[in-house]
Amino acid sequence: MMKSSIEWPRQMGAALVVVLSLLPLLHAFVANADPTQPSTKDLMFLIGQWDVERRYEPGSDRERVADGTLSCESVLDNAYIRCRYKLTADDRPPINEVVYLNFNGIYGRYESLWISASWPIKNTMSAEPASIPGTLFWTSEFLIEDGVTERVKTQWEIGSDAIERRVEIQTSQNPTNSWLFWLQETLVRPPAH
Fold first, then answer.
1. CA atoms within 13 A on the CB side of 172
2. 89-114 pLDDT, tens per residue?
3. Are the CB atoms for 137 and 126 separated by under 8 Å?
4. Domain region containing 22
5. What is the DSSP letter of 192?
6. Based on the domain organization, do 106 and 19 belong to the same domain?
7. What is the pTM of this model?
8. Which H, E and C letters describe 80-141, residue by residue?
9. pLDDT band, very low/low/confident/very high, at 35 (cuts 50, 70, 90)
10. Has residue 193 been placed in a domain?
11. Looking at the predicted structure, is the pLDDT value of residue 187 above 90?
12. Residue 96 lies in a domain
């Protein structure tokens, strides 16, 4: 049976009403991508190759130096930045680490998950949004072993072609509750060939 010429415009009108009613939802989705709001895109400066010098316990009698590279790329449809450290040091096996970074809109903070082949504990850190280039302050607290808690605070000084990373740690075993200057890292973009 053939539809009347009157039913066709009514059906199209109903479809148009449905589509128009979905526009506010679409607008809300697009509005969440506001470039003035913090997002994972703020961390895109990391993408590419970096030369790395890492100093453990800098300035102490136990200072150790590791050198190598950091390679960062956008993954999972730009939802995360994945960075891979490959470092060598005279006194230890190669250091292989992977870091995932993103902005978590639910918590309103940058997040990073550090995974190391040489250290069995995953470290999740967070930082308040800040202007980049500039300074990011990351913090974390986690159980390491035998009921001992470690607290970490990390400061990133971010420039256009260099990043300085300073890490201090404190454990619940430390009777003085003092912070140990654990690590200083310099990342520099290698010269273009």
1. 10
2. 987 889 999 999 999 999 999 999 99
3. no
4. 1-32
5. P
6. no
7. 0.78
8. EEEEEEEEEECCEEEEEEEEEEEEECCCCEEEEEEEECCCCCCEEEEECCCCCCEEEEEEEE
9. low
10. no
11. yes
12. yes
- For residue 187, what are the contacts with CB-CB under 8 A and spacing of at least 6? 50, 51, 52, 70, 162, 163, 164, 165
- Residue 75 pLDDT exceeds 60: yes
What is the C-alpha to C-alpha distance for residues 88 and 118, in angstroms, rounded to an integer?
A: 12
- Per-residue burial over 124-141, b if 16 or more Cβ lie within 10 Å, else e, is ebebeeeebeeebebebe
Bridge partners of 61, per DSSP, are none
Q: What is the 3-state secondary structure (H, E, C) of 143-182?
A: EEECCEEEEEEEEEEECCCEEEEEEEEEECCCCCCCCEEE
Q: Which two tokens stand for residue 27?
A: 């607008």
Within 8 A by CB and 6+ apart from 33, the residues are 39
Say how far apart CA 162 and CA 189 lie, in whole Å: 6
